[in-house]
Amino acid sequence: MKRTAPRAAVLLVLLAGLVVGGGSVAHEGATGVVAERMHGMKSMAEDMKALAEMLDGKRPFSADDAKARVASLHHTCHQAQDLFSNGKNDHASRALPAIWEHPDAFAAAMAGFDRAVEALMTATQTASLESLRAPFLDVGRQCSSCHEDFRRPQ
Ligand code: HEC
Questions:
Q1: Could you tell me the pTM of the whole model?
Q2: CATH superfamily name and code, 28-150
Q3: Contact between 76 and 69 (Cβ < 8 Å)
Q4: 55 close to ligand 1 (CB < 6 Angstrom)
Q5: Which of 44, 53, 117, 119 sits in a 20 to 30 Å window from 78, CA-based?
């Protein structure tokens, strides 16, 4: 039982960078596809937070809810690939030009993310909370590494 505490802390650290970064302060003026992208990212952050809370024991584990959350992540991930592909940006956006200057690297980051989400989706089929932990952390790492490379710091 004692061993779960340090692992829970990992989730908090992971999420601090993801969810807190999604505060709605900087979004005035974002329109169209940029606003849609931000919205998608926020919805992914909410799904990640819900899953982390289950892993943390802060929210009752429901295999169905976990499945739905991960399906929603997967759906949003595919949408995001389209929403970034047109190169549109505006002043409210934190998307770095590197996304369109190095499209192959960005596509690789998206593909890595997609694979991680798919592994997590497979893990949800087992209906065991513990089996979600490792693939969840992998997904979180993909979120963070893409943000490091392609998102302007706040
Ligand atoms: C392949 C790259 C990539 C991946 C993977 C990725 N993001 Fe993002 N994310 C971005 C970029 C680029 C932005 C900045 C978008 C903008 O401001 O136009 C962003 C913005 C965000 C924001 C801020 C949204 C806002 O309202 O300004 C949140 C929150 C976020 N991402 C969460 C996540 C979470 C959670 C994951 C993983 C489940 C994730 N992201 C995966 C590239 C990525």
A1: 0.89
A2: Cytochrome c/b562 (1.20.120.10)
A3: no
A4: no
A5: 53
